[in-house]
Specification:
The protein is of the alpha+beta class. The chain is built from six helices and six strands, in the order ββαββαββαααα.
Length: 167
């Protein structure tokens, strides 16, 4: 199912919702369509509106300030675009750069997406000890970047330029 990005009235990313929820928010005049899927429309007996890709709330919603995006295994896979940090193939697991048994934690900077083969080969060692090197250093996404990353590559590519992730 398609996901729709929800922006606050101040244009800051808030969340992603299902297409159905986005259409309901627009029909209830709680949001406006900022960016739509080209050529696709939702039709009913009396109305027709563009299929929303990005919507903006009409009223500002106060959200508690969150400095950091919460860490999760799914978040690491999404951040690394399901690509192994060691070989670049499809990743299905998360590897700890410094193993948990050696004091490494579940943090953005200590975890990378990994294919099962490389995760097994590295085992309970650091990349240097295993003779492996990371293709890309792990990073901590901001909360708004994490939301945009969660949209998926195809959806992100179709976003307007003013909303795209920094390179």
């Amino acid at each position: 199912m398609r996901e729709t990005l929800v922006l606050n009235a101040s244009f800051e990313p808030l969340a992603t919702v299902t297409l159905r929820r986005a259409v309901v928010l627009v029909l209830q005049d709680k949001a406006v369509v900022e960016h739509a899927h080209p050529g696709l429309r939702v039709r009913a007996a009396d109305i027709e509106l563009p299929l929303p890709r990005v919507i903006r709330l009409c009223r500002y919603v106060r959200v508690p300030f969150r400095k950091r995006a919460p860490w999760s295994r799914r978040g690491v896979l999404v951040r690394d675009q399901h690509r192994c940090g060691y070989c670049g193939r499809r990743a299905t697991t998360v590897d700890h750069v410094v193993p948990r048994s050696r004091g490494g934690g579940d943090t953005w900077l200590n975890t990378v997406a990994s294919c099962a083969e490389d995760n097994h080969r590295k085992a309970d060692r650091t990349p240097e000890q295993a003779g492996m090197r990371l293709l890309k250093a792990p990073f901590e996404p901001t909360p708004s970047d994490a939301l945009l990353l969660a949209l998926g590559a195809a959806e992100r590519d179709a976003l307007p330029e003013w909303l795209a992730l920094p390179a």
